[in-house]
Write a structure and sequence with these properties.
Blueprint lengths: L3 E5 L1 H4 L19 E5 L1 H23 L4 H20 L4 H17 L2 H8 L16
Antiparallel strand pairs: 1-2
């Protein structure tokens, strides 16, 4: 399973038996736990991120705003990573991710603009107060 691996500091866990002590070591605070992604997880995120940029560019060409583009990109990457991580939910999440990836290419730009574009703005109210 592609997961995060945790590394405890040597100060909290203590040095391994028979390990030589060097003065060059930086001792972090006691009990500090760092979470590092595995190299496979980093590769997966890069690959999915690059693949998700293709439909995001199509949405950008359709006139969506930056907030909607970022939400779409983060949602698509998150959905794809969840489909890979959780094997039991894969049968539901993988088709949903594929549908979200192909939707910008299938839907016309005018429909995308109406669905996700800015809402029509009203003109500001006119001042009709009589001046005296």
């Amino acid at each position: 399973m592609l997961a995060w691996r945790s590394i405890r500091s040597e100060a909290a866990a203590g040095p391994p038996a028979g390990a030589p002590h060097t003065d060059m070591e930086i001792e972090p605070s006691v009990g500090l736990i760092w979470l590092l992604p595995s190299p496979t997880m980093i590769g997966l995120l890069l690959l999915v991120g690059l693949a998700a940029l293709i439909p995001t560019r199509r949405l950008w060409q359709a006139g969506l705003g930056p907030r909607a583009l970022l939400t779409y990109l983060a949602g698509l990457i998150g959905l794809a990573c969840l489909a890979v991580e959780f094997r039991g939910l894969e049968r539901y999440l993988a088709p949903l991710a594929a549908l979200a990836w192909t939707a910008p290419f299938v839907l016309p730009a005018t429909l995308l603009g109406r669905l996700f574009g800015p809402s029509p703005r009203r003109p500001p109210p006119r001042n009709v107060t009589p001046r005296g």
